[in-house]
Amino acid sequence: MSLKLGIVFNFLQLPDVSKYPFVINKRTGGLLVKKGLFVYTKSIEGYLIGIIEKIVILNEYFSDALTIKAYNSETNPNILKGLFPSDDFEYAIAIVRNLGIVEFNDSNETEFSRIKRMMYPASPGKEVFLVEKEILEVFIGINRKHGLNVGKVKVSDIEAFIDMDRLLNKHFAILSISGGGKSYLTSVLIEELLTRENGYGTPAIIMVDVHGEYSYLKNIPALKSKVKVVDTSYFQISTPSLGAYSFKKYQEQISHVQLRELAKYIKTLRKDNDFKKKYTLNEIIEEIENDSEGGKNTKQALIGWLSELDRLKLFGPQENPVINNFVKQGEISIFNLQNEISIRKKQIIVDYICTRLFYLRRMNEIPPFLLIIEESHQFCPEAAHSKAISKYIIETIAREGRKFMACLCLISQRPKKLSTTALSQTNSKLILNIKNPYDLKHLMDSSEAITKEFANMISSLGVGEMLLMGNAVNYPIFVDIRERKFKSPTEHATLAQECINWKKVHSI
Ligand SMILES: Nc1ncnc2c1ncn2[C@@H]1O[C@H](COP(=O)(O)OP(=O)(O)OP(=O)(O)O)[C@@H](O)[C@H]1O
Ligand SMILES: [Mg+2]
Fold first, then answer.
1. Confidence (pLDDT) at 392
2. Of 118, 188, 371, 506, which residue is most buried, by most CB within 10 angstroms?
């Protein structure tokens, strides 16, 4: 039997199709009826499920200024106060926002066949009940058996087991201000994916770790066999795999005439090496220098472009790590970019990783994957003036990845600076606190589900609270994020403690 919470009544032009008010019963079995609680009432269409959006407390005694003055005046003896049982006149009402109508199977009262949009308001006089846990789980779209447990649905005792397929399939974004808890939430998701039972199916995870925040996973005994970390100081792009026109991506100003010439040199080098030997950028440069025929200006320009690329120390005779061997199902491969300072270099690395992953996935040489990109606004910026080599491929994966089970997770503290094309393709959004009005507006523009009301709530979320919306759930829900099972050593680092512990690493 469901818990009775109150009775629907008429208040301020309500009920209408989207909302209804109810008077809260004085006794609700010890349950405090509060904002965020899921409730239902029977309407003529079926069971109308909604969420309490607002609670108002009213007391007729205290609605009139003169009465309050008389009541509180010094001449009013206490005995008179006793005659005014003002407490008894206090009552609370709740305003419920309707979410949908559920139709139950005739055979089983706790299973319902489908959720419909409501077309008719709740009836005044009808009772309002608390939605039971089992029904609420199905209604929200929780997958208790195989889902990823990220915490608790707010104002309920339901564990937020997010359905992995629904979350990953259409990409997702994790957004908040700096320090809002994005990396923390990401590590909770990674914990869930890595500790998921083999039989349930887990994709390969690839993490672009800009600040080296995830390397600690390698030191966790329970996880370490599933974690690989590459310090990108040793990262190498395979020069022989680059055709002349790929160089245009790295050196935009290179002209078509110069590219034609470059193609010629690459061709001879490949032929000379029997198409097998691994050559470097330096060898292409030597090939150009040794050529006695070509135009001097073109040769000089090409040498200039290639030398500049060579100085990045990114282009080697072969790929390192070899991406198709590196990426494994149920494991995480972390690319640690912590030691890279140059933003251009970081973008080239990310571009290469993404391009290779997407190519290999399309060829079915690697398993379905989840690619997580931290600080994604650096790699896929919105503004035309802040060019990033990696933008094109990230947008391509965002648009086309779903068909190849190449899933993307974009993490950003500046949604406004993140490409709208990419952001609007991330169907599920895990939103923590965002304060900046421009970021909020950008979010509202990129997703129609984010209304002004949600925007207001997002700006008041605390650390550890998130709004989860989009394909992962049937209705937006607020979640209290669970604690990490495996602690990062920097978790409780404070400025004062760091100052005490600090020692100069390299004495000059
Ligand atoms: N759910 C949570 N429970 C407990 N502590 C949390 C939670 N989420 C975040 N924190 C704490 O808040 C701090 C900031 O979190 P985190 O590093 O995840 O932020 P961030 O959004 O990734 O920031 P940045 O944008 O700067 O990378 C950390 O010290 C972390 O321990
Ligand atoms: Mg972070």
1. 94
2. 371
Ligand nearest to the CA of 184: 1
Q: Which residues of the chain have pLDDT under 70?
A: 1, 29, 76-87, 104-113, 272-276, 385, 505-508
Helix intervals (H) in 251-381: 256-272, 281-290, 296-311, 323-326, 343-362, 376-379
Q: What is the DSSP letter of 293?
A: S
Name the token pair of 45: 């269409």
Which two tokens mark 445? 């523009």
* C-alpha dihedral, 352 to 358 to 361 to 365, nearest 10°: -20
What pLDDT, on a 0 to 100 scale, did the predictor assign at position 110?
A: 55
Average pLDDT, the chain: 88
Distant-in-sequence, close-in-space partners of 215: CB < 8 Å, separation ≥ 6: 209, 229, 334, 336
pLDDT digits (tens, 9 = 90+) for 372-419: 999 999 999 987 767 899 999 999 999 999 999 999 999 999 989 999
| Contact residues of ligand 1, CB 6 A cut-off | 176, 178-184, 413, 463-464, 481, 483, 491
Cis bond leading into 15, ω under 30°? yes
Q: Which atom of ligand 1 is nearest to the CA of 374?
A: 27
